[in-house]
Design a protein that fits this description.
alpha+beta; 5 strands
């Protein structure tokens, strides 16, 4: 049975009692409503392969292909799933098995290079280090609410 525990009063919620690989439509709709309300869902203890992660993610809307950057067509062909980006600091046979493994990214927003960025990012922590490796989220509603009224008025007409 789905249970929730808000992380902050209006931002972020821990969700327990569900298996994301076996959600029926009513369970997904409840999860989706929580995402709309809290902005960030944290669902622990999930076991998913890349295909299951892709299927779950697609329930939120159309998926974006991973950003290939400057890799060869031969290397593109080796990618197991074009909708799942592996982020890892593990090196096998002298090569990293994923991207962004050596602190290449600090604070950022996913896919901001897109004219219309996707509405969500889904992250699956398979192996998380004891120290560092933290993922942070920013509540943009709270940031806006904290602005002085004069600044809110000034930016109201901007796009």
């Amino acid at each position: 049975m789905l249970q929730t525990h808000p992380i902050l009063s209006r931002f972020g919620v821990d969700v327990t009692g569900i298996d994301l690989t076996r959600l029926d439509e009513a369970e997904f709709e409840a999860l989706y409503a929580l995402w709309i309300e809290y902005g960030v869902l944290r669902v622990r203890e999930q076991r998913m392969d890349q295909a299951q992660l892709q299927r779950f993610s697609a329930r939120f809307g159309p998926l974006e292909e991973i950003p290939y950057g400057r890799i060869s067509e031969a290397d593109k062909a080796k990618i197991a799933n074009r909708y799942v980006t592996v982020i890892s600091n593990i090196v096998e046979n002298g090569k990293p098995i994923g991207g962004l493994g050596s602190h290449e990214a600090s604070w950022h927003s996913d896919m901001t290079y897109k004219e219309i960025p996707p509405p969500a990012s889904v992250l699956l922590g398979v192996e998380v280090p004891q120290a560092s490796g933290d993922t942070y989220f920013a509540d943009q509603y709270a940031a806006y609410d904290a602005l002085p009224e004069a600044l809110k008025t000034r930016v109201a007409q901007l796009s």
